[in-house]
Structure formats: structure tokens, C-alpha cells
Design a protein that fits this description.
Layout: H1 3-6, E1 11-15, H2 19-28, E2 33-35, H3 38-44, H4 49-57, E3 65-68, H5 74-85, E4 91-96, H6 106-114, E5 119-124, H7 127-136, E6 143-147, H8 149-154, H9 159-169, E7 176-180, H10 186-194, E8 199-202, H11 204-207, H12 217-234
Helix pairs in contact: 7-9
């Protein structure tokens, strides 16, 4: 990780479901936690959810890691939550803010958090959802609220004031952390840090851009021109024959 990123207050969590990459990131020590979801697992070719989780938890023991329920029925979702929570003490159970019918998961969130379960409330978009979760969580429960700032930005809305307000709504919960989810670019890490978010999930593709941080723009311009020329030459393009 670049020195610039190390100086930030925000915690960088690796977002993915490739077991070997997760273990390598853990050994290298540059991330402070991990998040997964069923979509990432499908993309990574995971076929056995529990076996995958047990595999990564065999090595990742000292950092928080989130695994998501996938039932659409709240009663079954509750059973899945207790199963996942029992896998290891560093596990956070990801509960989506609603099911696929748009029915609120807040009653289940309140019930599970009230029993001391470490939760990661996911797929949160609106400030009304953040407020509802804040009211449902006990003041001292260890929880994460994942607001999908990247998807908010995809709608043409500025995520920075959105996340700033979300942080204020969680102010009465010192053990609850606000997570900036689905970042799109390196700038988002600095934006999330500046507005006071506790965590940001970052994919490997974004972390690869860390070498650009603070780069002289004239040098970057020249490097870009050289890339265009190199690719045009190697492709054998001709304009004048």
C-alpha cells in the first residue's frame, strides 16, 4: 500500500471472494478487514459457501470478515445468521436492508443485534434506511452499516454529503461503523476518509491504481501518450498507405 493510503484514518477492507487472494492480502497486512457477498462468490467460482468460508477463516482469524445470508424469508434468514455467526468470533453477518419483495429487514436486524450478534447491514442506499437501522441497533452493539455510495453516485447524486449525513445519523452508536461501499475510483478512498467514514471496501482493481497517487500530471500525460503510441504500433494500424 502507498504511504499516502497508510496515513489515512479510514480502514480499507478488501472486497472479493477469491480465497487465495484474500489469504495473501491478510498475510501482507495492508487491509484491515474483508467483505464478501454471493455475487462475488459466484464470479469467483465458489460452489460450496460454507467450505469457502471455513477455508478463509482457517487463516484469517484476527480481522473482521463479513459473510452474507441469502434466504429471502426472514425466519430462514435468522437461522442462516446464527449459523454464519457461529463460524468464528471475527465474523460479521451481512443482512440486506430488505428482502427481494422490498420488505424491511429492520425487525430482524433489531432482534439479532439485541442478542449481541455482530452485523453488517448491507445494500443500504437511503438516509431513511440509515436512520431506521440506527434506531434498531443497541447503542453498544458492534455493527457495520454499508451504504453503497458508489451506486448512489451512479444515479448522478454526490455521495459525499449523503455519507456525511449518514455518519451524523449513527452518531449515537460509538460501536457502529459506517462503510463506504462500491467505490468506483481511487478518489473515493480520500473522499470517504475526509467525510469521516470508518471503512471503505476496495477491490484489487482499485488498489492497483495506488501508484498513481500524487503523480505529476505532466508525467501522467506523457505516459498516456506513450501508451496510445505503443498500442497503435503493436496493433499494426496504418492511416496513410
Amino acid at each position: 500500500m502507498s504511504d499516502a493510503l497508510k496515513k489515512l484514518r479510514i480502514k480499507i477492507f478488501a472486497d472479493g471472494a477469491d480465497a487465495e487472494s484474500m489469504k495473501r492480502a491478510y498475510r501482507e497486512g495492508f487491509v484491515k478487514g474483508f467483505t464478501t457477498n454471493p455475487t462475488l462468490m459466484k464470479k469467483a467460482g465458489v460452489t460450496d459457501y460454507k467450505a469457502f468460508a471455513k477455508d478463509v477463516l482457517g487463516e484469517i482469524r484476527a480481522l473482521p470478515i463479513s459473510f452474507e445470508v441469502f434466504s429471502d424469508d426472514f425466519a430462514h434468514m435468522e437461522k442462516e445468521a446464527f449459523e454464519i455467526a457461529g463460524w468464528a468470533s471475527n465474523v460479521y453477518v451481512k443482512i440486506p436492508i430488505t428482502n427481494t419483495k422490498g420488505e424491511s429487514a429492520v425487525p430482524l436486524i433489531k432482534k439479532l443485534a439485541g442478542q449481541g450478534m455482530q452485523l453488517n447491514v448491507t445494500a443500504v442506499m437511503t438516509l431513511a434506511q440509515v436512520e431506521a437501522v440506527a434506531k434498531a441497533l443497541p447503542a453498544r452493539n458492534k455493527s457495520v452499516v454499508s451504504v453503497f455510495a458508489g451506486r448512489v453516485a451512479d444515479t448522478g447524486r454526490d455521495p459525499v454529503p449523503h455519507m456525511t449525513q449518514a455518519l451524523k445519523l449513527l452518531a449515537g452508536h460509538p460501536d457502529t461503523e459506517l462503510l463506504w461501499a462500491s467505490p468506483r475510483e481511487m478518489l473515493n478512498i480520500f473522499q470517504a476518509d475526509a467525510c469521516g467514514c470508518h471503512i471503505i471496501t476496495v477491490s484489487g482493481d482499485i488498489l492497483k491504481k495506488a501508484g498513481f497517487i500524487g503523480m505529476d500530471l505532466d508525467a501522467l500525460s506523457l505516459e498516456t501518450v506513450q501508451m496510445f503510441h505503443r498500442d497503435a504500433t503493436s496493433s499494426g494500424f496504418n492511416i496513410i498507405y
